[in-house]
């Protein structure tokens, strides 16, 4: 740790007389406040000498007996010419000559000693400090032989998946799901109580799969049960043909939601609101976002907005952006996705205000963002069976703020809409009918692995970003509270 | 009179560490509700937007952020705080001063 030396003023102050002792005493009595017979004193004196309030930010002058709230301690600094004051809640020392709070190793020592001796544990006093283990503690730690050391080379959580005959579409999606941070945390911490038979519930299977993935073993897994369940429950994915990974992903989310609601419904009635989009199941909590569609009538300027829940954002690659060129990056795609679109001629829409069909513009914006955003780049033209292999660049970090709906009730603090990439599913092959799926997953923060069925190889972030992405998975960086 | 009243209220709050407990409680609630993270975000935003030229000290940052931060305190937290303080004052009004200081 770097030794922090405060300003020159404080250096002079602490070497003069018994100033440091005074500081210690004030810290002990007023900041920590654990000397019982002096508690009453703390209490009777903890108010601003000017306005008699108990705050905000009560300070004590270190050069005379004066207490003041934030405003009046500064007045006192100016009037009396006293430089140093200490904030009485966290114990920060302020230097008026510098005009700011200061950091000093001696101060930290005093603070740490006092905190440790406090009879009662004060959470506030321990929040801002880092733990610097002592020699004894280090010794204890080295004597503990059983440790799990997570290094960049750790492979816990990486397992290959055996291809059961054109099941790469399933394998790559499973890899992405297994590496979704929030899903992993959920499934590894929450026990799933299930009434149905193990084989029939997808939540049970995924739950079990998480255990398999993170138990430290390395042999590749085969997932016949999962495949069987998919075949019986999502019949459009049945058979040994090649299937679309995105369809499988959507079917998985659907089934997870369905089985979760069915099997927990009776225990907890509040779980089930699936039609309103407020479902409490983990899938809806993580993946549901809202798309707002505004239709503006060109003749009366009336706006009709609707919001629809969505699990993913399917982005067109064929459309042309404003500059007249095809999109070549994820941001381009999102821009054209949220661009106002003119609806005229045959596409005229019935305007409720005008009462007739009118030219109008339609614009999609993102009303609410899910925790995990998935972008499907529409590389397959289902009718023609042609694949668009245009290179679309995508960033490791994306700020979704520009694509959000404008809100009327502006929040006092704008929300943080930054997302980081954690998985990419790629399709190789020239047509939509044939090819192979491969998944890239982020294992540690900057360590990426390529999961090609049962073969897992480390790759660099550059490789990932240069790949021909098909489904992109982004995770919210800062999780908000609700 | 008002001063006498003040000191009685103070006495009330001090017995059994009432005030300390309430402060700690509010602190915990503000962290739990995400208020602290929001304020942190607001501070960061302010600093990046205005640069260090406009906000040069902690004091300035505090005075800029405080009104916003206050407005963001969740109503539930305010209600709970009010309720807690009421409980402390009522209980002591009933019980008088018999309890005394817990660790004296």
TrEMBL record, chain A:
Q: What are the UBP-type domain coordinates in residue numbering?
A: 5-121
Any one GO CC term of this protein is: nucleus
Question: Which UniProt keywords are listed?
Answer: Hydrolase, Metal-binding, Nucleus, Protease, Thiol protease, Transcription, Transcription regulation, Ubl conjugation pathway, Zinc, Zinc-finger
Localization, UniProt: Nucleus
Q: Per its UniProt record, what Gene3D superfamilies does this chain match? A: Cysteine proteinases (3.90.70.10), Zinc/RING finger domain, C3HC4 (zinc finger) (3.30.40.10)
Every copy of the USP domain together lies at 159-477
**Entries under InterPro entries matching the protein:** Papain-like_cys_pep_sf, Peptidase_C19_UCH, Ub_carboxyl-term_hydrolase, USP, USP_CS, Znf_RING/FYVE/PHD, Znf_UBP
**GO molecular function per UniProt:** cysteine-type deubiquitinase activity; zinc ion binding
Q: Name one Pfam family in it.
A: UCH
**Which reaction is catalysed here?**
Thiol-dependent hydrolysis of ester, thioester, amide, peptide and isopeptide bonds formed by the C-terminal Gly of ubiquitin (a 76-residue protein attached to proteins as an intracellular targeting signal)
Q: What are the EC numbers?
A: 3.4.19.12
One Gene Ontology BP term is: protein deubiquitination
Major subcellular location class: nucleus
What protein family is recorded?
Answer: Belongs to the peptidase C19 family. UBP8 subfamily.
Q: What is this protein called?
A: Ubiquitin carboxyl-terminal hydrolase
Automatic annotation (TrEMBL), chain B:
What Pfam families does the annotation carry? Answer: EnY2
Task: List the GO biological process terms.
Answer: mRNA export from nucleus
Question: What does UniProt give as GO cellular component?
Answer: nuclear pore; SAGA complex
A GO MF label: transcription coactivator activity
Spell out the protein name for this chain: Enhancer of yellow 2 transcription factor
Q: Which organism is it from?
A: Dendroctonus ponderosae (Mountain pine beetle)
Provide the gene name from the record: 109538601
């Amino acid at each position: 740790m770097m030794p922090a030396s405060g300003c020159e003023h404080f250096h002079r102050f602490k070497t003069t007389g018994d100033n440091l002792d005074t500081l210690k005493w004030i810290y002990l009595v007023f900041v920590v406040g654990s000397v019982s017979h002096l508690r009453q004193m703390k209490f009777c004196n903890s108010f601003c000498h000017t306005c008699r309030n108990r705050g905000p930010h009560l300070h004590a002058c270190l050069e005379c007996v004066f207490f003041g709230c934030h405003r009046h301690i500064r007045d006192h600094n100016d009037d009396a010419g006293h430089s140093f004051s200490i904030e009485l809640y966290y114990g920060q020392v302020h230097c008026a000559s510098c005009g700011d709070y200061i950091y000093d190793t001696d101060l930290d020592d005093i603070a740490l000693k006092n905190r440790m001796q406090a009879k009662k544990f004060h959470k506030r006093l321990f929040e801002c400090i880092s733990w610097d283990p002592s020699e004894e503690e280090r010794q204890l730690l080295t004597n503990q032989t059983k440790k799990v050391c997570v290094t960049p080379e750790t492979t816990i959580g990486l397992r290959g998946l055996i291809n059961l005959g054109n099941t790469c579409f399933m394998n790559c999606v499973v890899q992405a799901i297994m590496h979704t941070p929030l899903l992993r945390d959920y499934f590894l911490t929450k026990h799933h109580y299930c009434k149905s038979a193990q084989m029939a519930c997808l939540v049970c299977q995924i739950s079990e799969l998480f255990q398999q993935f993170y138990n430290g073993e390395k042999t590749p897994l085969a997932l016949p049960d999962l495949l069987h369940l998919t075949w019986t429950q999502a019949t459009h994915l049945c058979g040994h043909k090649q299937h679309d990974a995105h369809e499988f992903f959507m079917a998985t989310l659907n089934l997870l939601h369905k089985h979760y609601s069915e099997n927990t419904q009776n225990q907890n009635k509040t779980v089930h609101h699936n039609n309103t989009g407020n479902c409490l199941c983990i899938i809806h909590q993580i993946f549901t976002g809202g798309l707002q569609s505004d239709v503006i009538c060109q003749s009366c300027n009336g706006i009709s907005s609707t919001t629809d829940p969505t699990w993913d954002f399917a982005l067109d690659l064929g459309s042309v952006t404003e500059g007249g060129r095809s999109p070549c990056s994820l941001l381009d795609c999102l821009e054209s996705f949220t661009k106002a679109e003119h609806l005229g001629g045959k596409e005229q829409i019935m305007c409720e205000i005008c009462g007739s069909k009118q030219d109008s513009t339609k614009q999609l914006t993102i009303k609410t963002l899910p925790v995990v955003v998935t972008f499907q780049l529409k590389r397959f033209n289902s009718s023609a069976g042609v694949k668009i292999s245009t290179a679309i660049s995508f960033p490791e970090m994306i700020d979704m703020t520009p694509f959000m709906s404008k809100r009327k009730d502006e929040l006092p603090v704008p929300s943080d809409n930054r997302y980081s990439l954690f998985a990419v599913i790629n399709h190789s092959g020239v047509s939509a009918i044939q090819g192979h799926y491969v998944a890239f997953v982020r294992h540690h923060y900057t360590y990426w692995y390529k999961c090609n069925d049962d073969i897992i190889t480390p790759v660099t972030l550059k490789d990932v970003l240069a790949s021909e992405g098909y489904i992109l998975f982004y995770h919210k960086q800062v999780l908000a509270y609700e | 009179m008002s001063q006498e009243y003040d000191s009685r209220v103070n006495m009330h709050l001090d017995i059994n560490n009432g005030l300390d407990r309430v402060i700690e409680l509010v602190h915990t609630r503000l962290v739990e509700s995400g208020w602290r993270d929001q304020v942190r975000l607001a501070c960061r935003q302010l600093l990046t937007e205005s640069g260090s030229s406009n906000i040069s000290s902690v004091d300035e940052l505090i005075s800029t952020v405080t009104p916003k931060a206050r407005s963001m305190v969740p109503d539930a937290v305010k209600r709970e705080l009010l309720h807690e303080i009421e409980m402390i004052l009522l209980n002591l009004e009933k019980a008088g001063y018999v309890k005394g200081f817990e660790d004296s």
